[in-house]
Amino acid sequence: MYTEYGAPREDKSRPWNDEAHKTCAPMLPPPPKPQPAAPVRIAAAQKESACLRAEGISWYPDPDPVTGQIDERKGTPEQWSSLKRDHLDALKKCRPEG
Prior knowledge:
The protein has helices at 18-24, 39-54, 77-86, 88-94. It is flat. By secondary structure, it is mainly α. Helix 2 (39-54) packs antiparallel against helix 4.
């Protein structure tokens, strides 16, 4: 496939290499174990989640109890866009360092 400008483009709508992925999957090394976050980082992430929910963002997820990371699959793309677009005051309040 090519773009309207003539540059080659991969068609990601159809997996042309599915068979190769299935064949090679057993040869892949196991994924790395998640690195545990410091208790201070986990506590800060939990406080941020609670703060954002208190500010009216009821769908905002809790952080992972090991890594402190937020799983963005727990909200819809529309919710995440709305968070950044419509809730800047809450983000500033709940994330004072960022």
